[in-house]
């Protein structure tokens, strides 16, 4: 993760916040890196798929609410910490984009909660979200129950 931090810092990003999903546990968590001059944010998820489903499930609504707050203020890309190989090239694309339009995306937590779908599908979901963002669509996620 040290290399990732160096890459982001070289590009003018600062770790602004650590987002925790349980009040009484340090994992899972996400880091929010921000480049204020570019109004861009990078969200790096750590151990977000690790908690077994039979255990306590962290709030997907809280996760979506936080992402939507970030989406209103910044262009963003989100990654699983174990899958950041495309970060540098996608940052180049994000920083080159000028205009964005807001789109709403409805998600079912049973089909998109990282604990329920597992790491492989979660990484695929994040790749789809990044693709959407790199096409100029800043997403507001709506949770359907």
What does this structure look like?
With 145 residues, the chain is α/β, with parallel strands linked by helices. Helix content is 40%, strand content 32%. The protein has five helices and six strands. The strands form two sheets. Strands 1-2-3-4 form a four-stranded mixed sheet, sandwiched between helices. A hairpin with a 2-residue loop joins strand 1 and strand 2. The model has no long low-confidence stretch (mean pLDDT 89).
TL;DR?
By secondary structure, the protein is an alpha/beta fold.
- How far apart, in Å, are the first and last alpha carbons? 35 Å
Decide which structural class fits the backbone.
alpha/beta
Strand content: 25-35%
Shape: globular
The radius of gyration is 15 Å
Given as residue ranges, the uncertain stretches (5+ residues, pLDDT < 50) are none
Written as H for each helix and E for each strand, in order along the chain, the element string is: HEEEHEHEHHE
Which range best describes the helical content: under 10%, 10-25%, 25-40%, 40-55%, 55-70% or over 70%? 40-55%
- Total DSSP helices: 5
Strand order of the largest sheet: 1-2-3-4
Q: What is the typical, i.e. mean, pLDDT? A: 89
Largest sheet: 4 strands, mixed
Count of strand segments:
6
């Amino acid at each position: 993760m040290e290399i990732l931090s160096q890459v982001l810092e070289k590009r003018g990003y600062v770790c602004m916040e650590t987002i925790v999903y349980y009040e009484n546990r340090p994992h899972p968590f996400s880091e929010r890196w921000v480049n204020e001059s570019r109004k861009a944010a990078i969200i790096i998820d750590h151990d977000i798929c690790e908690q077994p489903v039979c255990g306590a499930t962290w709030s997907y609504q809280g996760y979506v609410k936080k992402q939507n707050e970030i989406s209103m203020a910044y262009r963003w890309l989100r990654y699983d910490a174990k899958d950041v190989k495309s970060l540098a090239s996608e940052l180049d694309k994000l920083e080159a984009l000028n205009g964005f339009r807001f789109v709403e995306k409805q998600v079912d937590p049973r089909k998109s909660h990282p604990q329920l779908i597992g790491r492989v599908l979660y990484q695929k979901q994040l790749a789809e979200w990044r693709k959407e963002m790199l096409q100029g669509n800043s997403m507001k996620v709506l949770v359907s129950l």
